[in-house]
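Methods: example folding runs. The two proteins below were folded one after another, and each record is reproduced exactly as written to the output file, sequence line first and structure-token line second.
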Amino acid sequence: MISVIIPCWNEAAVIEGTIASARKIADEVIVVDSGSPDDSAALARRSGATVIDAPRGRGTQLAAGAAAARGDTLLFLHADAQLPSSARREIEHALSDPSVGGGNFKLRFVPADPWARVFARINHERRRWLRIYYGDSGLFIRRDVYDALGGFQPLPIMEDHDFVQRLERASRTVYITDVEIAVSARRFAAQPLRTLAIWTLIQTLASSGVSPHRLARLYADIR
């Protein structure tokens, strides 16, 4: 059984499309809202998702969603990310190997433009050679492995980086490239060079052991 978990904050513009795609993959879809002042929670319920509340913060919300999920496979998706229905087959195939604990998907940013392709290439090469990837690439994991790792931590930023580091140390992972996850380019569309510089700085500092609480000052909320 696959449970999709989607953290949500002011995502009324995208949440319905994400849930529609997730329902083609999962046996249950859980949206974890934090009292969004827009219509995110209501739209999610009308779209067929189970909606629960948790304090705002992606790490806290992801942990709450995982605690509520019934599946033996967990798939964590951002609210602006969509996978095709064939993703289920790819996840099941990857996890048919008992040595594999989880993995992620190749990113494709939309709408497509030269900068979107640059950012997608950077993410692809970083995943291939450095084994660094984030929550926007659709993290899937066996439930027992997730529990053994202690789940997501309530960090203000880089909760996915922290989790992936622990996953990579504990288990084999699979990078699925035959199926791509489509993610909104809204994070960098307005200022691609500035965003690239900030992301590079944050990743470098995180790899050097700088606290996520300090790094959060560099990361602006666009919603």
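Second run, written to the same file directly after the first:
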Amino acid sequence: MRSIRPLALRGALVPRLLLSLFCFGLSACGTLPGTGKADFSYKDMPIADGSAVAGEGNNILFQGKPLMLTGMGIKVGDKLRDVKLAQTDLSMIPVNDTKGKGKVRIISIVPSLDTKVCEQQTHYLSEKNMGLDRMVELITISIDTPFAQKRFAEEAKISNITFLSDFRAADFGKAHGLLLKDLHLLSRALLVVDKDNKVRYLQITPELAQLPDLEEAFRFARKLVTAS
């Protein structure tokens, strides 16, 4: 795994972290002729090992520096808490009542789509699932505004992901212990939820700058679909 050079975060933690996140930048997305699919340039990024623990008082790292999580916390075996999130048309919907209700769902949680790691995580979910999107619902949740999520989806030519925004009060982040306390951003995480809304797989990346293991989530979701 590639090492990531530590960033000093003493003092103005929030401005420096936000600047660092946005300095990841966005890769250019063109369109392949005749396909309507984004020609996304994937980068070699580290994939996180293991998982952090959600909930009040627990930490994740950003380039080696601790960031505190807040909220109730969630673990494998818990039911997904039915908080409301904003859709790209600004209407509110309970997270357990999306179009994939009654199906297996993969929920990808990112701090902001305006960073390179989050962008690649979302493209990978959309483009590398090997047809799993025909059997499960793919969801991305962030605190980006619904307008920003809609623009991202259109520019990236992504139409097989349900985008939900936690921008109003971070209720989803608080209800699941995935809110970064001092930043008002969500931690990076992956959940696989079964047809009864029970969390069957959970990875919270211990290091915010690393990708979650999407391939493992795909394998887990496929097993749940096969078993049902």
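Comment on the second run: Helices lie at 13-23, 116-127, 146-156, 171-176, 214-227.
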